[in-house]
Amino acid sequence: MVNLSIKVIFAIFVIPVLASILLNLIFQKPPSDHGKGTMFDLIATRYDFINRALALNLDIGWRKVMISKVTSSGDLFQSFGNNGEMDPIRVLDLATGTADVAILLAKEYQNSSSMSPKRELKVLGVDPSLNMINVGREKVSREDLSNYISLELGDARDLKNLQSDYFHAATMSFGIRNVPERETALCQIHRVLKKETENSAGSRLGILEFSEPSKEAGIMGGAARLFIRHVVPVLGALLSGAPREYMHLQNSIKEFPSPKDFSAMMEGLSCGDNGKGSFRVD
Q1: CB atoms within 10 A of CB 170
Q2: Cα-flanking dihedrals φ and ψ of residue 206, to 5°?
Q3: pLDDT at residue 59 greater than cutoff 60
Q4: Angstrom distance (rounded) from CA 118 to CA 247
């Protein structure tokens, strides 16, 4: 029994650490801006499968929680526009990847209550990886959701082609840590979101992201850090055949600020002429 326990501990903890160290010795550490479109082009066709494996199939549930908060559990689709107008509800999904969030938004819209008139939904998904966009378009077509969703190539740091004060909501899942100039991207998002006025409730931004647990998180936090630093790059490399890409994933999570620090950064942003307080984090 003791020998079996030692073998299990060795398999769970020691092997991934040794394999991770070996990866870092063989492959050069990716630069901090490695997580751009060309990186995801290499792993696009296997991205969904690997994502589910690395997130232990929990990521869809996390996305659903974000969507529920951004849409106020579907109430966003029922609300009237200014002066009672029924103009479409427009949602921007940045780092849309293979369109998981865009598809879930459309399904949330379809499943929302029809007791009151629903406004038309238009979701625009933007991503810097053409291969990810192409996979997303195939998924949207299979789900028969093309009436709701359009996907375009683009960068969160440069949304000049999008109208200011236009979107009722925006989402970004597992993407902001791959953006080197985060403040620039957030201010671009702020520009295209509708602002709160006497006749408008404003808009909502939902950001879903990984960060390492702090040391105060105890044993479970330590286990999570071990998983992120050693299991993720090894498992990702084995499943994708792209070790540097999953070394970047590990590094980007490790270097991303804590939720508290990231929230403080958002609330302290000064976008345009609006001064500080461009975002209010709930």
Answers
A1: 23
A2: -110, 125
A3: yes
A4: 45
Q: Which residues face 150 on adjacent strands? A: 124
174 in the Ramachandran plot: left (φ > 0), alpha (ψ -120 to 50) or beta? left
Residue 255 contacts residue 32 (beta carbons within 8 Å): yes
Residue whose entry in the numeric block shows the structure tokens 């890409």: 245
Measured CA to CA, the distance from residue 197 to residue 165 in angstroms comes to 11
Cα 50-35-223 angle, rounded to 5 deg: 55
Residue 102 has a CB neighbour count (10 Å cut-off) of 28
Quote the DSSP letter at residue 270.
B
CA–CA dist 265, 183 (Å, integer): 8
Using CB atoms within 10 Å of the CB of residue 13, give its burial: 0 to 12 exposed, 13 to 18 middle, 19+ buried.
middle
For residue 147, how many C-alpha atoms fall within 13 Å in the half-sphere facing its CB?
7
- Find the range with the poorest average confidence among 105-114, 150-159, 198-207, 226-235: 226-235
Q: Per-residue DSSP letters for 162-206?
A: SPTT-BSEEEEES-GGG-S-HHHHHHHHHHHBPPEETTEE--EEE
CA–CA separation, 282 and 280 (whole Å): 7
In degrees, rounded to 5, the angle at the alpha carbon of residue 139 between the alpha carbons of residues 136 and 141 is: 110
As to burial, measured by CB atoms within 10 angstroms (0-12 exposed, 13-18 middle, 19+ buried), residue 101 is: buried
> Phi then psi for 170, rounded to 5 degrees?
-140, 150
How many contiguous H segments (helices) and E segments (strands) does the chain have?
Answer: 12, 7
Determine whether 190 is exposed, middle or buried from the number of CB atoms within 10 Å of its CB (0-12, 13-18, 19+).
buried
Supply the pTM of this predicted model. Answer: 0.85
